[in-house]
Amino acid sequence: MSDALIVGDSMRIPEIRHEVPVSVPDPFLYVERGERRFVVATSFEVERIAVADGALEAHAFEEFGRDELQAQGLNYDEILREVTVRVCRELGVESAVVPPTFPLEIADRLRESGVEVRSDRAFFASRRRVKNEAELAGIRRAQRACEAAMDEARALLRRADRANGVLRVDGEPLTCERLKAAIERVFSEHGVSSDDPIVSHGPQTAVGHDTGSGPIAPDEPIVLDLFPRDRETGCYSDMTRTFVVGTPPDELVEYARLCKEALDRSIAEIRAGALGRQVFKLACDVFERNGYPTLLSKEPGVVLAEGFYHSLGHGVGLEVHEDPALGKAGEELVAGDVVTVEPGLYRRGFGGCRLEDLVLVTADGAENLTKYPYDLTP
To answer: CA 249, CA 244: separation in Å to the nearest integer?
Structure first.
């Protein structure tokens, strides 16, 4: 087994957050050598790290010459670089794997000192796929917060009246921005956060990651794709629903019917040992049988902009998009994976429908972590 090195902060770097389950805003060092798990951080983080995981050996930079290095005029990043070299020398690390985000200047310095360093994306991705108890609890909390925020958005949609071609609530236009503000308020109350939830309407909904803007009209699709992050663990959830205030167009009703069929068929096939690409194919089969293009049916090199033009899903955990994939190259699922299942149908200039549930892969099936209705009517 190779020794492992990770350098970064645990707010943005999932590889280190998985090993050190506490939010640390400044970059620090994690070293794994045999059975030892060694952390070197600023002095005011050491106690927090030790309390978070008693199996970690937590040390301050001062133990490895921070004061001396600072006296030489080195800044924080330069001190971290030199401390990394000193720690590896003390622990006897001669060769180590690092994640793709490992700082190049530290890798270069380690190589100069005689330590072999090589990036191994698969090594670190595989460690995070099977969620531990704390991570899974964080995902569940984030999902409950997601559902509470969706409830708040639906309540506003139900209260909306038609006026001059737009929806109004309490006399004011109902905009994507107003819905987002309500969603983010609920997120805060539930101990989660989100950078920019997707609340799109009309033709915007045909553009997968258009975050949405402007006043919402009656009888048009409204897509809410929410992916909050649990503050305690740093883990995400992810859920999408599509609504219409008024009368849904027949085309959208058909989209919703097929998306729900694809969702049900896909989740029924998810279990440890299933191939992500085969689950994806099941969803594509539903749409192709009904005349819609998919990534599997399109010609090579063609950019698909309508129909089912994206993959079926992705892993969720310390990143909102992580391994494994449910797509053309989807790998084998393992018990403990958490994945989204999000079929969608779209037509440019009109809009689209997407339904997304979050599921935990088990040895003999899948536990749907999403407890939310699928109706187009709010």
So the answer is: 9
